[in-house]
Specification:
The chain is of the alpha/beta class and 394 residues long. It is 39% helix and 18% strand. The chain has helices spanning 16-26, 61-66, 71-74, 80-96, 100-115, 133-141, 162-169, 180-189, 206-213, 241-253, 269-278, 295-299, 315-322, 351-362, 365-373, 383-391, and strands spanning 3-9, 33-39, 55-57, 122-128, 143-151, 174-177, 197-199, 227-232, 258-263, 285-289, 303-306, 327-330, 344-347. The longest helix is centred in the first third of the chain and has 17 residues, at 80-96. The two termini are 21 Å apart.
């Protein structure tokens, strides 16, 4: 008899955790498990990549209205009280806390926990695939024989009340993170749960990623002698795209011919576009916005540039290695878990250092590409480790 599994996720917009979940669902054993997926917001470019065997379920009007992101859904005529509550609770929570993550935590504990009803269905296994609110929903609103929480970041950078987080993490059967460094951080921050913290690397299917990479040639790319650079991520402070703009300005000053494309969206996009234009980068530094299939942009670029201030474990870097695209990355805490000196160049966290790394890579990128091409980064076999943890046999 199949086991019933629930995944709880925010949305399927274009983040590393979202791509990680899609990769996992694509190699799941549907002869063994019946899988439901609950999204707080049923939106995002990765929706079309959800396997047909996965059942998309709803969490009720309260969940969808209180977590609506589009203005027309937030101002619901059908549910005016929920719309009012969304704005009121969000406003009060932001006034009481210093960070966005903290405000979401406060909003759940003081308002949403009381307002959102539990799921009626009972599951054998239920999994929150993102930290904070998805974890809280899993603990408070889901009935399951076994509960697991995935943490996709360096938790020391998460600005929430640790006592509240510990109370929730203590009520799940396992806490999973995506690198040894991230797991060690969890154990240091939350000693009472250290014995139930596990490391499982993100699933990467070389076959799937390479197939998607062949879908088209990016229409924005030009086949000439200019360097083609690509970066991917939400346009937020932690992703360091302000450093990318600085690096691009340095490259232009030095007379380097390049086109740098950023795939992603976020609250800093308009501001950074204006900054780039003010530095004379129009035409050589471009924010393309979201792309449902980023892989042709990676595989046809000369260099993948990662400018993050921190990451848990970057899905993008694993994908670049599979597609044999050399890497230049900033030196955040966990980067050396993923990038060796034969796979890419790790540089300081300044625009000048990033520009230096790009120029260094430009002169030696064939050697790095050849090394990546000689190695297989597919790790779909580790699905067995996922299954062992899900089934409770470890």
């Amino acid at each position: 008899m199949k086991k019933n599994v629930l995944f709880v996720m925010s949305s399927l917009r274009h983040g590393g955790a979202e791509r990680s979940l899609i990769n996992l669902l694509q190699v799941f054993d549907y002869d063994k498990y019946e899988v439901d997926l609950l999204l707080f917001q049923k939106e995002g470019g990765f929706l079309e990549l959800v396997p047909p065997q996965v059942n998309m379920i709803e969490g009720g009007d309260e969940l969808s209205c209180l977590y609506a992101t589009k203005r027309k859904e937030q101002l619901s005529i059908k549910h005016p009280i929920l719309s009012l509550e969304h704005f009121l609770f969000t406003f009060l929570s932001r006034k009481r806390t210093a960070s966005l993550e903290g405000s979401r935590q406060y909003r759940w504990v003081n308002f949403y926990q009381k307002r959102i009803p539990p799921l009626k269905k009972h599951y054998d296994i239920a999994i929150s695939y993102l930290q904070v609110e998805q974890l809280y929903y899993l603990v408070d609103k889901v009935s399951a024989g076994r509960k697991l929480a995935w943490i996709h970041t360096d938790y020391s950078k998460v600005n929430t009340d640790r006592e509240i987080d510990l109370a929730y993490l203590s009520r799940v059967d396992g806490v999973v993170s995506i690198s040894d460094e991230c797991v060690n951080i969890l154990k240091e921050l939350f000693p009472p749960i250290a014995d139930k913290c596990y490391m499982l690397m993100n699933i990467n299917s070389s076959k799937t990623i390479r197939k998607l990479a062949e879908a088209f040639y990016p229409p924005e790319y030009v086949k000439d002698n200019a360097l083609t650079l690509v970066s991917i991520g939400r346009v937020v402070q932690l992703k360091g795209f302000d450093l990318a703009v600085e690096a691009a300005a340095k490259l232009k000053e030095r007379g380097v011919s390049f086109r740098w494309f950023v795939l992603g969206d976020g609250p800093l996009k308009e501001e950074l576009e204006q900054t780039a234009d003010g530095l004379g980068l129009k035409g050589c530094f471009t924010f393309l916005g979201l792309r449902s299939n980023p892989y042709p942009y990676i595989s046809n670029a000369d260099i993948m540039v990662q400018t993050s201030r921190y990451e848990g474990k970057s899905v993008v870097l694993d994908e670049a290695k599979i597609l044999c695209t050399p890497i230049v990355s900033t030196d955040y805490a966990t980067v050396r878990d993923q990038v060796s000196n034969t796979e890419g160049i790790v540089v300081g966290m300044t625009g000048t250092a990033i520009a230096d790394g790009i120029q260094q890579m430009a002169g030696d990128k064939e050697r790095y590409s050849a090394y990546l091409n000689e190695h297989d980064y597919d790790n779909t076999a580790c699905i067995k480790d996922y299954e062992a943890l899900i089934d409770g046999s470890v």
